[in-house]
Amino acid sequence: MENEMIRCSTFLLAEETITRLTSEIRNTKDMDEKIRKAQSLLEESNSLLSCIEYDEHSVECRSCHTLSSLRKKIAEILLRVESLSERKSKTPKWR
Fold first, then answer.
1. Are the C-beta atoms of 78 and 30 separated by less than 8 Å?
2. What is the pTM of this model?
């Protein structure tokens, strides 16, 4: 697994939170809870993507960015689904 090769303390600290959030998103049936967790996942991913110590020549940094980009996309998809579902519920139903 890619994250086993990343020894960066910034990544490892965030990884604990990201792993917990991902598990909570997967396990909850409550869409509001999924959305709150997805927003937190997005924030954590953005935090890693904006790391001031990023080094484009470092395999660890590039791996971190790859994982963080994927996680950010997952969070954005969940948030987009919620947005579409809200719009659908507000759309008048024609008879």
1. no
2. 0.82
